[in-house]
Amino acid sequence: MTDEDDAARAEELQAESWRVATDLTRRDPQHEGYALLLASLNTMFEVRATRVAALGLHLQDSVVLMLAATAVLAAATAGYASGLKGDRHPVAWLIFLLLLLLVLNVIFDLDRPRRGLYRMPPSPLLDLQRTVREEGP
Question: What does DSSP assign to residue 114?
Answer without folding.
Answer: T
